[in-house]
## 1
Amino acid sequence: MDFGLTDEHELLLDSLRELLERECSESYIAELDRTHQAPMSFRRALHEAGFASLGFPEEYGGTPCDAVTLMLLTERVAQQGLNNGYGIELLQAMDILEFGSEDQKAEILGLLATGDVPFALGFTEPGAGSDNSAITTTAVHHDGMVTFNGTKTLITNALDAKYLLVMAKSSDRGDDSRNAISMYLVPMDAPGVSTNPLEKIVWYTNDSCEIFLDDVTVPDACLVGVKGNGFRQLMRNLDLERLVIAATCLGLAQCAFDDAATYATQRVQFGKPIGSFQLIQLKLTDMAIKLENMRNFVYKTSWMVDQGIPLRSQGALCKRYVAMAAFEVADEAMQIFGGIGVNAQTRVSRLWRDLRGHRFGGGTDEIMVHIAGRQILREHR
Amino acid sequence: MTIVVAYKWAPNPQDAAVRSEGTVDFTRAKSTISEYDPVAFELARRVADSTGAQVVGVTVGDASIDTSLARKAALSRGLDRLVIVADDRLVGADSTRLAAVLATVVRRIGDVDLVLAGESSVDVTEGQVAMTLAGQLGWLGLNAVSSVSASDGGYAVERDVPSGTVSMVVTGPAVLATTADAVLPRVPGMKDILGAAKKPVEVLSLDALDVPSAQVTLTTLSTSRPAAGNRQRVIIDGSDPTAAAAELVGALRAAKVL
Amino acid sequence: MNASSQTWIVVADDPAVSGLVVAARILSAEVTAVVAGRRATAESVVAAGVDRVLWLGEPAEGTPVEAYAPDVARTVAAGAPGAVLGSSEGAGRVMLGAIAALLQAPGLSGVTALERDGNQIGVTRSVFGGIAERRDLVTGGTAVIALAGGEISDPTGLAVPVEEVTANALTTGRLTGLRPKEKAPVNLRAARTVVAVGRGLKAKDDLALITDLADAIGGELACSRPLAEGVHWIAKDRNIGISGQQIAPELYVAIGISGQLQHMVGVRDADVIVAVNSDKDALIFKQCDYGIVGDLYTVVPALTAALAAKP
C-alpha cells in the first residue's frame, strides 16, 4: 500500500497552489460570497493552466487524469475556502464529451475556455427530488423540433449557465421512466425559458433557481446521446460526482479545522489560550480523527475507481460519511470560535453554511442510505 | 541556437532552522525550483518560441539536486532538455565555483548564445552566480533584465535601472539575470508535468568537466545568529483601536521616536 | 597568486562611492580605484579621496559600462590587491563577477563587517538571506567584496591625476535608449520614518488609509514584495526586502505584513519596528518593538487620529 503522492501529484499541487495564491485569495472568495457571484476569473485561470480540461480526451485538448489526482485537486481548491470551485463542471462537461454531438461538444468546450458555466443540470423538480423517476417535464418531438413543458427547481448555477441540461420524458418512449427520460441541451435564452432565483442561506457563489419551461421549442439537435438513455447517461459519472462532492467537503472541513486550531492558540480566556483547555483539545482531536477518516475514504474510493474495482455501495457510503463528518467538523469549528464564529465576516461561518448544503446537494444523506442499504443487502442475499 | 536557463533547485531559508551556534539546518525545508527562477524559464521559452531555438536547463549542485521530482519540476517549465551536474563535492560551493562549473557545461552544450538566470537564488540570496558566469565565459553580463525578445541579428533587451528603463541591442553571446517580475511565469499544467518525464536529461560527471580549480578559498572562523532579533516585543491588543493607538503613540513619544 | 596588502575599488560609472572608500580604508591606507565609464565619473572618484585612479577611457557612444567588465577584471588582476570592493548594485555586480571569475575567488556579498588580520582579510556576512551570520578568513588571494556603494562624496580637496588605461570593451551590446521613470526614484534609505504595507491590504483604493498615516507620521510609503511585484499597487522602488531595498530608518511601521524573512532582512537595521497585523501569530510580532494585534482597517485610522492629537 502506498499512501505517498507521486511526483506528478506534487508538481500539480504546487502549480495549483501558485494559481490559488495568484487568483483565489480569501478576500476574493469573501467578496464573491458577499456579492453572490461565481468565481469566473478563477475559473478562467484554471482553464488557462489546463486544469479545466483534465480527464478530457486528448482530441478535445484534454490530458488524461486519474480519479485520485482529480480528487486531490478538488480537495485543495476547497481547502482554500472556496465551495464548489473545482471538479463538478468538469465532470458534467465530460458527459457531453461522451454523449454529445460534435456541435454540442464544440460549444461546451468553448464556454469552458472562457470561464463560463456551460450548463446547469436540470434534474430536480418540485415533485421529483430524491425520487427521480417522478420527473414530469415533457419533451414532445415534432417536425424536427422538440417542445418542452415543465418546472425544474433548485437548479444550481442556472443564472450563470448558457444552457440547461434538461432531463425530460420523451413523448414517444412510454411511461417507464427509466426508459422514457432523455437528455437535452437547451439554451437558457430560448423563448419560454424563465428563471426565478431562490434566496438560500448556503452556497452564495452558486445561484439556485426555479426554471419554468413553457412551450420551449428548439430544434431536435438539442438531444444529447440516445433518446430514452438520459438516465443511464446521467448515471455514468454519478459515482465520480459524489466523489467530487466528498473531496470538496474534505477540503472545506480541513480549512475550518485549520482556522479553528489556529484560533484556539490565539484566543485567550481565563488568562490562557483556549487551546490549553482539554475541552477544546478534545474537540480538535475528534475533528482531526474525522478528517483522517474522510481523507482515507475519499482517497481509497478514488483509488478503487482508478483500479477499475466496482464501487457498488462505496460511492454512496463515502458521500454520506464525508458530507456528514465534514459538517460536524465545521460545526465544532464554529463552537471553538464561539460568538465570533457567527459573525458573517469569519471564514468559518461561510464554511459551516456551505458544508450544510452538501448534506443534500448531490443526493441527501438519506438517499445515500437508500442506495448503499439495498446494495449491502443484495451482496448478502 | 540554444538558450540556456541556469537555475537552482533550492530550499527556502524561511523553512530552515538556525541552531543556537548559528549553523543552518535545511533538512526540514523542501526544495523547489528557486523562487525567482521561473521568470527565467518563462522568458527563455517565449524567446525560443519566436526564434525556433531550443531551451536547455542547466543546474549544478550537490547530489541532492538530482531527484526525479527535481528533474520533472524543471522540465515541466518549458525546457526541451536538461543537463545536471550533481556531486557532493559541490556541497556549499560558493558562487564562483558554481559559475565555473556552469561555464564548462555551457561551453560543452556548444551553440549557446543566451544564458538566462533569475535575480538570485532563494537560499543563498547573493545574486552573484549569473554575473560571475558571464565573467567566466567572457560574455557580456547584464542584470536587472526586465524584457528580452529576438530582434534583427540578436536580442532586444530592456533593463530596469533606478533612473528608468534602459533599452539595448545584444548581438553576441550574453548572460542575462532577470528581475523578479519581468514576466508572470505560467504555472505548469498536467500536460507539461506528464510531458516532463519524457524529455531527455543528461547527467554530467564533475570529473569529466574541465573546471578551473579555486584559487581563493574561505576558512570559516565562526557562525552566529543575527543579533537584531532582540526587539522589545511590546504587544498591544487592538480590539479597542482608539485605546491601542493612543497607547502606541504614547510609547513612541516616550521613547522619543516621534 | 600572491595578493598585496592594497585595497582596490571598482566603479561602474556610478559616482556614489563613499561607502566603498570608507570600507576600503578599513583594510588599507592606500586605495586604488578602477573606473569604467565617463571621465566625469572618474573625476568624482578622485574627489572622493582615493590615492590612485585608473580609468578605462571614454566609452564609445552606446557602449554599456558592463562591456568593460573583462577590462576591469584584467586591470584588477594585474594589480593583485588584497581586496577589491565594488557596488552590490547594478553593473557593480557585473564587474565583481568578472573579477571573481578571473581570480577564481568567491564573490562575497551581504557583508556586515570587514577586518584585516595580518596579511589576510576577515569578512563577516549575513548568509542564507540573513537568517545566520558567518565570519570567514579569505585565504589564497584577493577578497572580492560587494557592498552598498554609498553616496556621492563632497570633494576632499585632494587631487590625484586620472590615469588612463587602455581598454578593449566588448562590442556585443549597444545602448539604444532610456525611458526615464515617470516619478523620480524615491530614496527610502534616506527616510527617517518609513510606513510599509503588505498583503493585509485588501484593495488598491484602501492605500489612502496608509498614505494618510504616512503623512501624519511624516514618513515615506513602502511595501512588501506582493504589493510591488504581485499586484503592482505600489512602485517597485518602494519594495522592502531581499528583492528590494534594505533600509535602516529610525522608525519602521509595518502594516498587514506577516514578517517573512525575505521582507524582514530589509529592515533589520531599523531602530524601532512597529507592526500592525490581525494575525496574533504573525512572524512579525516576534521581530518588532511594538505591535498592535488588530484589524488594520480600524487600527490605522485610529493611529492617524492619535498622531494628529497633540501630546
Note: The two ends of chain C are 64 Å apart (CA to CA).
## 2
Amino acid sequence: MTNWNRFLETFFNAKVMIKYLPDILHGMVITIELALLVVATGLTAGLALALVRSLAIRPLNWLIIFVVDLFRSLPPLVIIVLMYFGLPAVDISPTGFVSTWLSLAFVLMAFSEEIFWAGITSIPRGQWEAARSTGLSFGQTLRDVILPQAFRLTIPPLTNRTIAITKGTSLGTVVAVSEILGAASSAVSNSYSPSPLMMGAAAYLVLFLPVVIAGRWIETKFAWKR
Amino acid sequence: MIETFFNPEIIAAAYPIVLSGLLNTILLSLLVVPLGFTGGLILALLASARQPWVRWPLMAWVDFFRAFPPLVLLVLLFAGLPFAGLELNGFACVAIAFFLNTGSYYGEILRAGIDSVPKGQVEAARSTGLSGLQTTAFVVLPQAVRNVLPDLLSNTLEVVKLTSLGSVVAVPELLFQARQAQSVTYNPTPIVMAAVVYFLILWPVVRLLSRLENRALAGRG
C-alpha cells in the first residue's frame, strides 16, 4: 500500500465515515439549533438593552454598561464552564445545551448592545430634536427616524461579530453537548479513526463557509463610502 | 451563596494554582499574539500585491480559517495528527491553531488598513527615491496600523480570551488550573476566581475599546 493510500485509509475511511454519518448529521442539526437560538435571543436582548439605554436613566445605564463590559471581558468558555459546573452547587442544573446557549447569547447581547448603541449615538442630536419638534413621539422618533439610519451603520460590524460568536457553538463539546465537534470526538474514540473528525471539519465548512462569504458580501454592500 | 462561590478557605488553598494558571495565560498570550500578528502581516502584505492570482487564493485561505471554529482546528491538530504519526503537545497545537486562525483575522484587519492608505502616498514615496520595501515599511504600514488600531486591539482582546481554549488540550492556563482546583475541592470557587481574574485584567481594555469604537462609528454618521 502506498503512503497516499494509507493516508486515505486513515483519514477518509469510507466504512467509518458511512457508519458515523448519522451522528455527524445529528450534530449538525444541534449546531444549527444552538446557533439560531443564540442569534435570535442574543440580538434581541442586545437591541432591547440599547433601547433601554437610550432612555438615559442613570443608574440603569450604569448597570447596562457593567453587564456589557462583564460579558465582553470574560472568555465564552469560562462563562459556559461556570454555568455548567458552578450553578449545580446552588441546585440549578442547566444542561450543557442550555449553558452553551445562554452563555453565547449573553456574549452576543453584550457585543450587539455596544454596536447598536454606537449606531444610535452616531445619529446627530439635531435629528432627534427635529423629529420631536414635528410632533413625533419618543417611540416614533426612535422607530422611524433613528433606528433605520442606525441599522445601516451597524450591519457590517454586527455581521462579523455574530458569525464569530456563532462559531462558539463548538465550545458546547466541553460541556457534553453532542453538536458537530462533540459527535465527531466521541466517534473518534469509538472508532479509533480520525475520519469522523474530518467529517466534522467538513460539516463546519459546509455550514459556516457560506455564512462567511455572505458576511463579506454584506460588508462591502453596506460599507460606509468615505 | 458566599460559602459556595467565594469560599475564603478554598480561595486561600487554590490561590497558588490559579496564580500559576494566570502566569501561563500571560505567557501563552505573549506567544500567540505576536505569532498571529506576524501571520496576518504576511497575509496582508501578500494580498496587497494586486495580482488576482495572488489575491484570490489568499482570500480563500482567510475565509477557510474564518469559517473554521478555532476549537475544531485545535482538536483536529491535537486528536487527528497523532493518527498520521505526528504527536504534538497541547502547547504546540495551540500555537499552530492560533497562527492559522487568528492570523487570518489579523490579516483581514491589516489588509483593510493597507487599503485605506491613499495610492498617492506610495507614488510620492517611490518618487522621492524610497524602494518598494522602504515604502511599505516606513510609509504604508505605520499609517495602515494607525488607521485600524481599534480593530487590532479588539482582535488582540479576543485572542487573549481565546487562550482559554488551551484548557481543552491540557495546557495549564488559567481556566485549566481553575478546573483542576474545582475538581479537587468539589467547589466552584476556583472557577469564579478565574473569571474574576479575567475580568480584572481585561476590563480596562474593554473600556478603552468601547470609547474608541463609539468614536469611530459616531464619526461616520
Note: Chain B touches chain A through 52 residues (CB under 8 Å).
